[in-house]
TrEMBL record:
The lineage of its organism: Eukaryota, Viridiplantae, Streptophyta, Embryophyta, Tracheophyta. It is a multi-pass membrane protein. InterPro entries: 3-oxo-5_a-steroid_4-DH_C (IPR001104), SRD5A/TECR (IPR039357). This is 3-OXO-5-ALPHA-STEROID 4-DEHYDROGENASE 2-LIKE. The keyword Transferase does not apply. One of its GO terms (biological process) is lipid metabolic process.
């Protein structure tokens, strides 16, 4: 019985732990975004071995396609499993499970059928990326599970959030298709309303801001005809 109790605590952590974990993505992903700006990049895609002192030959690597599949599959399986682990729930909980599962399912399909890869991914970067996707998905779903039965928020963002998700994921897929067409097959072309969910969104935004800033700087260094009017975050401004 004691072993069973320990397993239940591991599988279903306390609400306090979920709240405490909310600080983790803001801190870690925010730091990762700042590191991108400073030139310390996550080692994948065009930034593989950029700004690194250790030679690329001494790093354990996998192909970009394999790395992305490893990163996206566990959170997809976690989302799919949540329908069996938590079969009941309100509409808000159903939307959280569905959008997360669909998002990573889309990512897997893009890795297999849309993207054209030519580089690799360092395992030292793959591990934290995969863990981040997996743990964030698990905690977002579980946090929403705990929130069931609580009073509805004063400002209900469920339907605006769903609309933004549909617009965002459609635009994301469209631009991924455009980018895949810019790369030749044999050569390189142009390259919920819970505290934890909010915290992870903020952390991810901070990281992607840093990555976007570094990507624009990389384009300027690699392509002489790349327009300086193309900005990283705010069109025509920054």
């Amino acid at each position: 019985m004691q072993m069973e109790s320990v397993l239940l605590k591991l599988l279903f952590p306390s609400p306090f732990l979920v709240k405490a974990m909310s600080a983790v993505p803001v801190a870690t992903l925010g730091y990762a975004g700042l590191s991108e700006v400073r030139g310390k990049h996550m080692q994948y895609s065009k930034f593989l071995n950029v700004g690194e002192k250790k030679p690329i030959e001494k790093k354990i690597r996998v192909s970009s396609r394999t790395g992305m599949l490893i990163a996206y599959t566990p959170p997809f399986l976690a989302g799919a499993a949540s329908f069996g682990i938590f079969p009941d729930g309100d509409l808000r909980f159903l939307l959280v499970k569905s959008t997360l599962t669909f998002h990573f399912f889309k990512r897997i399909l893009e890795v297999l059928f849309v993207h054209r890869y030519s580089g690799g991914m360092a395992v030292e970067s793959l591990i934290p990326i995969a863990l981040s996707y997996f743990t964030s998905s698990v905690f977002v779903i579980y946090a929403q599970h705990l929130a069931q039965g609580l009073p509805e928020p004063a400002i209900d963002l469920m339907y605006p959030g769903l609309m933004l998700f549909l617009i965002g994921i459609s635009g994301n897929f469209y631009h991924h298709c455009l980018l895949s067409k810019l790369r030749g097959r044999k050569g390189q072309g142009i390259q919920a309303q819970t505290l934890y969910a909010f915290a992870f969104t903020v952390g991810t935004t901070l990281y992607l801001m840093g990555r976007s800033y570094s990507t624009r700087r990389w384009y300027l260094s690699q392509f002489k005809d790349f327009s300086k009017d193309v900005k990283a975050l705010v069109p025509f401004v920054f």
